[in-house]
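Cross-posting from the chemistry board since nobody answered there.

I work mostly on the small-molecule side, so proteins are not my area. We synthesized zinc ion and want a rough idea of how it might sit in this target. Sequence and SMILES are below. Is it possible to get a predicted 3D structure of the two together?
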Amino acid sequence: MTPPKFLADEMNGDIARWLRIIGFDCLYFTGDDLDNKLLEIAEKENRILLTSDRELYQRAIRRYIGAIYTSGENTETKLKKIFNILNLNTYVNRLKYRCPICNTVLVQRESKGLDLPPHVKNNHKTVYVCERCGKVYWKGSHWTKIRDTFRKLGVDI
Ligand SMILES: [Zn+2]
């Protein structure tokens, strides 16, 4: 089964980052008057629209575009809702991590030879590199926090 792809509106940047970290493809746009553009992209690329705008949500549904309404909730509640509705649990751990900043699939690299602080090289044999924006990620204390948050949602990563 192909994992669902997403498109987050301005209010769901937090969700975009969380979904990308565990490997879901999630576009994220900010700016004014994006509603028509968002609907167009969601329709064309078969992406599920994550929106906190009720009117936009209803417009999507009327056009048979998959959409999830996420207003007035905190990040964890929003994630939980999305996971439950789409049963995302079944895809997790089969996906390659993506860069939370730019949505690019991360490449696993040996830390040796990369320009990283010594403590990172000492503690992490491999790191994850975004070849698009250049960011490097490793499973440090931040990762523990991410894992704990997902664990609370019943998701083991
Ligand atoms: Zn990146």
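Reply from a structural biologist on the board:
Welcome over. Reading the output above for you: The first strand starts at residue 5 and ends at 8. Residues 99, 101-102, 104, 130, 132-133, 135 surround zinc ion (CB under 6 Å). Happy to explain the token format if needed.
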